[in-house]
Amino acid sequence: MSFDKTQIEALRESGAIFRGAPEAVAARFYLLLFEANPELRGLFPDNLDDQGRKLSATLALVVDAIGEWQTLEPVLSSLARRHVGYGVEASHYGVVCTALMQTLTQTGATASQVAAWQAAVEKISSFMVSVAYPDRWVESH
User: Fold this and answer.
1) Long-range contacts of residues 85-89, Cβ cutoff 8 Å, at least 24 apart
2) Which of 79, 45, 44 is nearest to 62 (CA)?
3) Among 17, 70, 73, 115, which residue's CB has the most CB atoms within a 10 Å radius?
4) Cα–Cα distance between 68 and 35 in angstroms, integer?
5) Which residue in 4, 28, 1 sits closest to 109, CA to CA?
6) DSSP 8-state code for residue 44
7) Which residues contact 127 (CB under 8 A, 6 or more apart)?
8) Contact 36, 99 (CB under 8 A)
9) What is the secondary structure of 94-137 as a DSSP string?
């Protein structure tokens, strides 16, 4: 999986959003996710503070390692497998992507940064779904 230089640059520039106010970004993300998909709230703990820190750390890792797929792959594979145990379904990846794009837009990302994240998240989601649900992924692709 590769990203072009323009995408990598836009993603790295967007890292300031996650590092500048990680709690606020995470809070906005979960607010948007649950407003659009209230049925997902039960998949998360009541207190989202720790979850928000994990989200921000994962997004920062993507920013830092986006040009080095070999660094991301094992982390994303592990994350995908864990999410199956939490009750995450393949269809949830799309709604998470939508909430993330809305969050980025509302927290100051530029259009090029949002576009780069859209491309990255689509590639990452596809990879994670292929790891988490290999039988389903093969059938649908």
Assistant:
1) 86/43, 87/43, 88/43, 88/132
2) 79
3) 17
4) 34
5) 28
6) S
7) 1, 73, 76, 80
8) yes
9) HHHHHHHHHHHHHTT--HHHHHHHHHHHHHHHHHHHHHH-HHHH
Contact predicate 8/67, CB 8 Å: yes
**Cα–Cα dist 5/75, whole Å:** 22
Q: Could you tell me if 7 and 114 are in contact, meaning their C-beta atoms sit under 8 angstroms apart? A: no
Structure tokens at 120: 């990255």
- Provide the whole-model pTM: 0.89
What 3-state DSSP class applies to 72?
helix
Alpha carbon 98 to its chain's center: 10
Integer Cα distance of 98 and 89 in angstroms: 15
Give tens-digit pLDDT for 80-138.
Answer: 999 999 999 999 999 999 999 999 999 999 999 999 999 999 999 999 999 999 986 55
